[in-house]
Input
Amino acid sequence: MLAFNFSDQAQTVPLEGNWRMLMETGARIEKNRITLPREGFGILVLSA
Output
């Protein structure tokens, strides 16, 4: 999954499922939420 944040502020949103980061982009997964840095993105993969 690609997640984008076009805002000038970091954004945290709920995330369902067992996701992990595929590439280091500055995004963080904590419990069932993802935090995207301002004007940033995340590349995630669903773990089995």
